[in-house]
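Hi support team,

I'm opening this ticket because the web form for multi-chain structure prediction keeps timing out on my end. I have pasted the exact lines I submitted so you can reproduce it. The total is 864 residues across two entries, so I didn't expect it to be a heavy job. Is there a limit I'm missing, or should I split the entries? Thanks in advance, R.K.
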Amino acid sequence: MRRFVVRRLAAAVGVLFVISVLTFLIFQTIPNGDPALRIGGRLATAQEIAQIRHEWGFDRPIYVQYFRTMEKIFNGTVVSYTQGVNVLDQIRHGLPATLSLAVGAGFIWLMLGILFGVITAIKAGRFADRALTVLAFIGVSSPPFFLGALVIYYLGYKAGVVPLGGYVPLGQDPAQWFSHLIAPWLVLSVLFIGIYSRVLRSTLLDTLGEDYVRTARAKGISERRVLARHVLRNSLIPIISLWGLDFAQIIGGGAILTESVFSLHGVGQFAAESIGRLDLPPILVVTMLTAFAVVLLSAVVDILYAVLDPRIRLSG
Amino acid sequence: MRKLRLVGTLGSILVLALSVSACGKSTKVGGTVTVLFGTAPDSLDPGMAYTTQALEPDQTAYIPMTTYAHVAGVEGGKLIPGLATALPTISADGKTYTMTMRPGLVFSNGRPVKASNFTYGIERALKIPWGGSSFITANIVGAEAYASGKAKTISGITANDATGQITIKLIAPYGAFDNVLAFPSFAPVPKGTPFKNEPTNPPPGVGPYKITRIVPNVSYQVVRNPYWAKEAIPGIPSGSVDRVIAKISSNTTANALSVLGNSADVFDFADTIPPSILSQVPSRASGRYEKVIKNSTYYFFLNTKTKPFSSELARQAVIVGLDRNAIARLGSGFFTPACYLLPPGIVGHPTSPCPYGDPTKPDLAKAKALVKQSGMAGTPVTVWGEMRSPRRQFVDYYTSFLNQIGFKATEKIIADATYFPTIGNLKLNPQTGFADWNEDFPNPIDFYGILIAGDAILPTNNQNFSQVNDPVINAKVNMLGSLYKVPTSSLKSVESQWQALDEYNAKKAYTAVYGYASFPKLTSNRLDFNAATLHTVFGWDWLTFKLK
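Hello R.K., no limit was hit. The queue was backed up. Here is the completed structure from your submission:
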């Protein structure tokens, strides 16, 4: 177990280094991406641009700029180029909204994905399977910005059932927190429910044909027990793997569209706005956060693998 | 008897109160107004703030030495004294401005305001540096040396704390300098304020309100400045509401719906009402919605230094054939088709018909003929544009139009953030593409001095995208040109000269102007719509907000 943790931590450091270098280099190659020009604005003179370059260190060699930026990230003083705000403060401020979105939506899509996957598998070829398959395809084909706009207009503006956006912290007002998040949770979940139910249906159908399932049935074990203990448990391995990565991506700001449509002011929305401004420091920090979350959660998923299937060993 | 008198008095008060409320026009003082923005301000620190989203709150908290009348329409462009006792007096040679700081002013932190705080505010804006610093460095003696670190003070500014007198020496006469003094970025700030952008803790200022509870990119509040009561500056309202809450939400559809549904009060004029709900806005927001034209011109630049638009006939072809109605439709109707660079709210906007016919009636056949006549038919043209809607759609239409009239046009669409630095790089020498100009201040020199004057052609951050270097224009609007020197207060006296110049510019087809943008003025039912001013310079004038 210790070796596993050490190896994963080393991998995380490596991934973060590579990701940060790549992100930094990409920004150096954008045509006319000179941040001094954007900070200076349309009327800045050549002298002012030179002044900005000097003060921000953009006139230093690239590797020096990289290490200075990384130093500022790790000592918490990194600020956005265009707004001058502390990036880590912004992330800290956005993280509760993003976590609230990720945890709620992650729970909904996992539960409903499994439920629909099981129903479509055991009712394969019947009406329920076909109906849920159609719904799954609709879900997968509905981008959050479209679905979100519909929800805001019809459920928010017309019916007044949900707020028109925004985020209320859990500690401030739990009821408002819930009412502001229910629509984003559902909108974000729809896509994943569709994907997860299709993946699970496929793996369940494969597993149902396995010899050990036939053996279990031959032993007289009840169908429900066969399904729960033998079929579902094995079929959940790819689902858990998928869930870990998706959840990590959302924690790292991956729900850009959902956060933006509902103005949750989470990490994803911050990332989207920073990309619009080509503001390197926030993008760098968010990218590293995503990478870290993915590495961390894939390690958690590996541990869950071992729980679900004792044949899998962490050291293996 | 005393009891009866009391009852009588109370009865009179009641009758008076009822009669006042029966008028139905009374507005209450106090309360909270919520403003929704689709875009966050660049910074609320006046030393950095440049966008309209920042200017709106800043003009309530950082009154500069001169400012603008708090009225709607063209009259809102009239300069009035701000913290100065009167508008600056200008020496005969136009190079020395003298003004006096009002006595007894106090910052929102309670500290007294001195004349030297004005100098400090300018120095700070130059060191940060503010996006419009060139208005100072290009004009005030010693400002550039100070900004570049070669001098410790700005030699051209002297401030006497005892008398409050401030003297500013200019390198050369610059008529719009009064307007420059009206930027909140050059308002006085307390000495000791750090020479760096303070986006979450902007410095104290002098104004009816102060900015507080800032959560960057999320929200902030503007609340009454307790020291303002001592000020009483004529022409500057103290504001009716106690608090303005500004919320930033990138979903402008939800913002518009919130204001339509009265769950928020003000929709940011700089945001676009999405076409999907635009059709229902006039009926649902009857009496609290209108389109307001502000001083901004949209055009396609035509590079006069390279083929095909080095040919005047080729440029004329674009002007003649451009379907401005189509562009207005792409802009959801928020465009008034036009041909002149100076918009109607700017002194010098011509009243004569457009030189190449009615801008709403394109003549495609004539345009094709002109392209043939110019000998530029088939010339490859790269059309530059931004990604954001509807600008991208303007460029899509424009590209297909150029192909229609005989050029071989292809699009080059780039990220919004890099667009102007890219096309402003002279080495690139872009042929044509999208351009716009939103006034920094209501003065024609702000358009011509930056967009058309020959000395405005710069190697980087060039804004004279058409690279116009016409001696007729230069004689008037270059830094030493005759119109460049005319003080703001005397602009009316040279109106006909500006009109003639703008007509000449249109006749030479240096830019394919297609319209002046209008903006949505949309409020909730709670707000007094008529009192709330969408100001020509400030944008929403928060000092005019009143709850019904």
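A quick check on our side: The radius of gyration of chain B is 25 Å. Let us know if the file doesn't open in your viewer.
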